[in-house]
Structures
1.
Amino acid sequence: MKEIRIDDINNDIVIFAKDRSRRPMDKVIKGNEECIIKEYNKSCPFCRGNEYYTLESKFKIENEKGWIVRSIDNKFPIVDNLQDNIYGNHEVMIDTYRHNGSFYNMTEEEFYNMLLMYKDRYSNLIKNKKVQYVSIFKNYLREAGASLNHPHSQIVSLSIMPPDIEREIYISKQYYIKNNRYLYDDIINEEINTKKRVINNSENFLTIVPKTTKYTGEIRILFKKNIKFEHIRNKDIRELSSIFKRLFSNLFEINGDIPFNIFIHSHPKDIELEYFNVHIHIIPRMYRFGGFELSTGIYVSSIEPKDLADKIKF
Amino acid sequence: MKEIRIDDINNDIVIFAKDRSRRPMDKVIKGNEECIIKEYNKSCPFCRGNEYYTLESKFKIENEKGWIVRSIDNKFPIVDNLQDNIYGNHEVMIDTYRHNGSFYNMTEEEFYNMLLMYKDRYSNLIKNKKVQYVSIFKNYLREAGASLNHPHSQIVSLSIMPPDIEREIYISKQYYIKNNRYLYDDIINEEINTKKRVINNSENFLTIVPKTTKYTGEIRILFKKNIKFEHIRNKDIRELSSIFKRLFSNLFEINGDIPFNIFIHSHPKDIELEYFNVHIHIIPRMYRFGGFELSTGIYVSSIEPKDLADKIKF
């Protein structure tokens, strides 16, 4: 039995085909056992003590031993400030001074400092008059696009509106016009009421396996309150740190050390706040798209969100 | 220096950032040396002699030794004919009886038979009244989504219009409305005139590195004449076989045995023919998208199409 499902936040089309999971290719890319490496690596440009490899810090948090997190300009930026048709900044945010850190083993405190840095850099870059949108993302392991092992995230400000954000905003606005209700409120209420896809429901965040997604294994963290990312309070960051800690511990137990991407979808500069809630997409890179997806823009899924949520929830 | 480029057939947005190619992660996935394996593999369901593994042939071409190519129903179909909201057929087309065949070593004659099969299955599936679109694609190697080694392509008929096709059609129609000229004619003329991105220009096909594409290394073969795929003549198939043979030989010399996807973008059932020319996308899977691309729908490229075309042209 096949079924067409539509992702409610971006209208992605997914054919749900349960039997396909029996195919050999649908086997998960196995995570390697965690590689034990040292806290400091002499040749790593992102390690504490090796600051001479990189440019000056744009931001850092320090303790008595030195910096814990820091943000620096990316040496190979996607955008720069040398022309006007595509303008922006691109920084690398070092998640932790520990070379052997990863989302799978970072402490709540480490996540907290990292998220404080996310907020600082975001608030700083979104202020620029030329900037329309600021994108925060992380690539973990080479399969997910990472070029260096030391744990790091990235932030890119852009003078243009990204089409994927434009699409999500458009859909949320159309939803409001049609229903006189907010899309994200309705999703949050539905998920909390039906319960079955909820991984965690805390005061300010709802963590779910989305009803439909083109990325098998995707997890979303929705901000329940309608605030801009730069207005997130330290108390909320605390809460989010605890969610990150527990979520990635559970993911590691289930999948091992697998590649993933994580990115924040936040408000573009000039959008009316109401239509759109900040949310975080977490995409394990366990499956690869083939020619069908690349050719049609239709995706195929064979895993019931409920089954996945059951495994991860906390 | 960064530059915004727009793919003229689908409006994909690409930031051209030449410097990025110096990053460690932009290294090409190295192709393995060609694995010498035998023509027949006892446990392969797609090998000649092992037909009992699979369902009956929907189509085959035979010589005195048995079948050379055959098409069979996919055992794990993306779509089936059991319901109406998403209806279709999904066949596996075995490119050649040779287990050790691949696009990198197939003869012109093998390509010819394979393409005859593409045409037969396409013509057959597009006739079905419920079908809107028929997608032909191939996944080569696991990185590109292949599940079995024996060389095979796939064909899927669909009762729904794929969004990526809808977008290409929409753009070509808008172009006509605005310019009173056909987009594909203009692209073909421009490419032939400027020459620099042309890989091969034959009587009925133009093979190019597109000016802009989200997939680094993509090659496109454009049908010069505006015909539906089911109306391709055997003479054209001959010509296309020769192009495939030379193109993939050259790609093998440059990159080795790397994964790729190939897919045909053909006319949906009811579209006016004029707006849109059939074309083939060939996508080497050498690079992986990271969180920036997944998050924004903006892509980054650092290779000049001209430089790539120079290496491959014949």
2.
Amino acid sequence: MRELTNDEALHRLGSVPFGRVVFSQNAMPAIRPVNHVVDGGAVIIRTHLGAALLRSVGVVVAYEADAIDADSRLGWSVIITGYARRVQEAGEVHRYEEMLQPWVDGAMNQLIRIRPRMINGFELVEAREVVVT
Amino acid sequence: MRELTNDEALHRLGSVPFGRVVFSQNAMPAIRPVNHVVDGGAVIIRTHLGAALLRSVGVVVAYEADAIDADSRLGWSVIITGYARRVQEAGEVHRYEEMLQPWVDGAMNQLIRIRPRMINGFELVEAREVVVT
């Protein structure tokens, strides 16, 4: 296992279309899969979670994405932690709505930006492999 | 999108080798990918997280696994929420250590059982598909 640099981690995150947002709901840990884009070093999600996540807006959430192959047991995982805030500027809302097509039916009008305060990424590499970093 | 029954959800969870445990760490949401087995209706994980997760043992955690195809945008996600407790009975420890081989190097001596109090699962189906439940 090797740690990814922040740049590597954000690059990996941007290379996949979805991940999982982690937040508190009624003082309990909650997690929901959503699709995302990475833009300007931040993660943008569009959610139908409504009240559940919006209560968390302005508070700290985590966001995780991974690509781990169950057979080879190789892959990577990236976790960012940061404040979730609604995207409200009209131009940005329009642009992100174009970029983020909802995967499920239903109104998905809330765009949330998670700006990382912490970035943690790791890569699962073969134990015998020599990793040159 | 259709909801899975509890039985369907646990069956899906048991069909994949890894997921993500969600807990609070220093009052912030935290998430780590780990591998798991489903046994007796509970999720068993073996973790190298040490102090990070062990502080959560006896408190509520969430556990999520999914299999979503990025191209077809079809698949499923299951989330259980429940108390995390260490598995300490010697026979169980031995059995689960056989079942759960660590994917990364390092001591992974903590076996944790998460017994679901809530089970939430959904399946992403094609919008035009008629689902007979």
3.
Amino acid sequence: MSHITLAHGNGGRFMRELIEDVFARHLKNPLLDIKADATTLPADSLNGDIMITTDGFTVQPLEFPGGDIGSLAIHGTVNDLSVAGAKAKYLSLNVIIEEGLELAVLERIVVSLGKAAVEAGVHIVAGDTKVVPRGEGSGVYLATTGIGIKDPTLDLGMHRIQTGDAILVSGPVGDHGIAVMLAREQFGLKGDIQSDNANVYPLTQSLLHLHGLRFMRDPTRGGLATVLNEIHTCSGFGIRAHESSIPIREPVVSVCEILGYNPLYLACEGRVVTVIDNAQAGQALGIWRSLEQGKDAAIIGHVSSSDSRVILQTELGGERYLEELEDDPLPRIC
Amino acid sequence: MSHITLAHGNGGRFMRELIEDVFARHLKNPLLDIKADATTLPADSLNGDIMITTDGFTVQPLEFPGGDIGSLAIHGTVNDLSVAGAKAKYLSLNVIIEEGLELAVLERIVVSLGKAAVEAGVHIVAGDTKVVPRGEGSGVYLATTGIGIKDPTLDLGMHRIQTGDAILVSGPVGDHGIAVMLAREQFGLKGDIQSDNANVYPLTQSLLHLHGLRFMRDPTRGGLATVLNEIHTCSGFGIRAHESSIPIREPVVSVCEILGYNPLYLACEGRVVTVIDNAQAGQALGIWRSLEQGKDAAIIGHVSSSDSRVILQTELGGERYLEELEDDPLPRIC
């Protein structure tokens, strides 16, 4: 059979074969037991605070320049643990497949997912597949839940943010959103923009020893502007960002100008926004810039006591508010 | 707004309000922090082996006699931990909503999910929502990942099964499959069959002190016949079951006769199949029958050294093979 049928989800022979031939084969690791109802996590691997997070993935198209829904499903969840200061260790994987999906496409996605898991050093330890009828899905949806370990003495969070703190971003914003949008070919635009889809653990881990580190978040849905609004809402402080400091690639700027998007609201899938004591901001920037993944990092603004909102200082010296996102500029990007 | 829009999934204000007003409100517990990227599990609650499992839910219709996709998403994952000998403690929740879903329906499902979680003593500690365009979902899909704790000295599994062991089922089979099928009204049949959708922890926990307990599994997709085939395949032993001993409700038998279904292949969502040393089978049966949930429990067969397949002894004295399921009698029942 070259395509998924409803029988691949019925608990019988076809489902067993799909799980053995596609999922177990490419996601193989010592802890993945496809015949067990539940798996025991090795106790000696769980020293520290145990953290959990979860994320769903419905991106369209399933494959795009720089990644696919499989690698995204690993990075999205690994990154949520990483920005919380944890090291991702174990993942569960849910797969909801639409009847009629080409098996070859599913296999490419699972191979990519397995490769991203190995590179991030995480084991897939539990999984489930469901098949929904044609017209009630869009190829495949994924959901991953991650378990990670954090140093119990590490305290990161909105509550640590103080006025005067610096805000850093680890690289150009908007690449993922524009790469996925161009892959849809709905606007007749072409470009060679790659998604920034990546494991950010090397970036987050590199800053954990800095005592002035307050808070980290990956700017996915809603982009950088949404993270800045979340910081403002949760901390109660204002934020002043400098438009000219925010790294954005030239082709992303061009596409945004043509289509009327604001790149600050577009999703990244491999960037980190960090709030850090201003006294250590230069040191953090140096560390990031020494990493390939952080070579375009920048200090983009500061937490401010004199502002009461998120304010963007424009290149011409003007000011405008970065509001909380209302309508959806680019749906289905993750 | 009375219906879900794509903007409810975009990371902005509508999504925040949906999460606050529907999910956080009904799933509230001290560990659920909707503003955090990841949550720390309290270390003092994790004494024992830490187990993990995951399950996806795509049942149609979303609501049916005896339950809905919300309570099912709790029980399905809690039950997988329970039959592994663990006590479920924490759950993550993924929600994939179709644009156009009535908010009132979503809220009923979340309320039911929250109620089932409280009753099962589990906390929802991480969540994610996505919205997919109209026609690319079917109302709502759920996925839950569960974390549970098991006594490290407890050893359950296929590897412990021996010839001569007894096989028990905790109650009538096929109720869930038929209840969901009748709720679709596609055959013009009516009936008052309720799904058996329930938390099986009271059943599994009641047997854990029996040293002869070998293995437990909940017969969901593929039903009792599929569990018997899994036991046969994994243990290498034959199985002899007695048709007259298998509890099936009369209305389930009637509907199956009309539509040509075999109830042994239909899903249960609140039953347990147990393999136990024959010397303790009577004791286990007594324990189960003393519980409301297990009052119709029965010893349905034995692990056999003289058979090489799963054999059903019929009421008239004949024999037939219970084969591994191939085609799908009733898709989308969980």
